[in-house]
Amino acid sequence: MIRRPVALLWKWWCGVAQGQARARALLLLSLALALETADLGAVGAVGGELERAFYLSNTQLGLLAAVPAVCAAVATLPMGVMADRTVRVRLLWIAMLAWSGIEAASAVAWSYE
């Protein structure tokens, strides 16, 4: 029963993206953005518990929320230049692997320092 609406949605999505390969890439990038946004939102949602568990000050909690935005702002221009001069798919893979590794490392953090 649910297969028909999903198939229709996928057909529409492929038409919007102008091809199946583009639709797949756009879907994966959208999912990555959703995960990143959820990760940033999680800091605000559990801020009080983070303060108690890791003995964070308000300044440290603010830095924890702000540092990803600062890193993204600093990396935008160099990544844009690299995207123009290298193979974009390879660059995307490297960036996603680095991001995944950093996220995994942050998951096992025992303290703020």
Give a written overview of the molecule:
This protein has 113 residues and is an all-alpha fold. It has helices at residues 3-17, 20-45, 47-54, 58-85, 88-107. The protein starts with a helix and ends in a 6-residue tail after the last helix. The model has no long low-confidence stretch (mean pLDDT 86).
Helix tally?
5
**Termini gap:** 52 Å
Tell me the total number of β-strands. 0
**Helices and strands, in N-to-C order?**
HHHHH
Estimated share of beta-strand residues: under 5%
- The best one-word shape is extended
Structural class by secondary-structure content: mainly alpha
Uncertain residue segments: none
Mean pLDDT: 86
Largest sheet: none
Quaternary: single chain
Short description:
The chain has 113 residues and is mostly helical. It has helices spanning 3-17, 20-45, 47-54, 58-85, 88-107.
Give me the secondary-structure topology.
Layout: H1 3-17, H2 20-45, H3 47-54, H4 58-85, H5 88-107
Helix pairs in contact: 1-2
Key terms for this structure?
mainly alpha; single chain; 113 residues; extended; 0% strand
